[in-house]
Amino acid sequence: MERGTWIVAVGDELLSGHTADSNSHWLAQRLRQTPYPVRRMVVVGDSDAEIAEVMGSAVASGADRVFCCGGLGPTPDDRTVAALAAALGLPLREDAATLRRISQRLARLHQEGRIASAEPNSGHRKMALIPAGSLVLVNSVGLAPPLALPLPTTGEPRWLLVLPGVPAELLTIVEEEIVPVFCQGARAAVYAEERYSGVPESQFYPVLLRLAEEYPQVRFGSYPQAQLGDVIIRACAADGTVLERAMGALREQSPPSRS
């Protein structure tokens, strides 16, 4: 079983290159600081079949957390919630509390002169259709309701976390609603890095090969910074003491010119 987190980003605009997937990048950075680092990222289009297929794989993987981002809006191409409900065998029901929150936000927007009518339309009502058994979280920035759905488990709780794709909304929801409740605990891994100047990346091959054998609990990677002529050697491990020893060995064995 695969621990950690899957991120599923939904949107034709991501696949076509019209929009960069900044949400997955930010989430990976944020979740690195939690017990649930990202193990896999997947991008799918606004297709019921594609969403259902990848969701089946994510659930079967045993991932502790599955983030599904995008496709919660009021238009027909926003298919994520209905597709997830179908994939998980859950009926959709209009949630009165969610519709009430949407109506209250519409009233504020109307009062501010930002929309012509405060009356919820069919698109708004679509956003209030919630899969049975979901926890509806708070979106303090926008209209689309974020959701938390429990996933099948024989051990620790597993969660599917469904978030709007608008970056400002997603970031706020993660910080206010997700991390404090669903991602609490010590980080799963610690990181360290060294930067070297004027040393060809290939010279690190024998060094990193030896270190991988000496410290199998540590993952090393080399990352050339071509414009600067530098190489970053980065390592991560679950045990900070082991990581510190491995980094000491790196410093002893590496080519000169470390900056």
TrEMBL record:
Transmembrane segments: none
Domain MoaB/Mog: 6-185
Matching SUPFAM superfamilies: Molybdenum cofactor biosynthesis proteins
Pfam families associated with the record: FLAD1_M, MoCF_biosynth
Record InterPro entries: CinA, FLAD1_M, MoaB/Mog-like_dom_sf, MoaB/Mog_dom
Matching PANTHER family: NICOTINAMIDE-NUCLEOTIDE AMIDOHYDROLASE PNCC, NMN AMIDOHYDROLASE-LIKE PROTEIN YFAY
This protein's name: Competence damage-inducible protein A
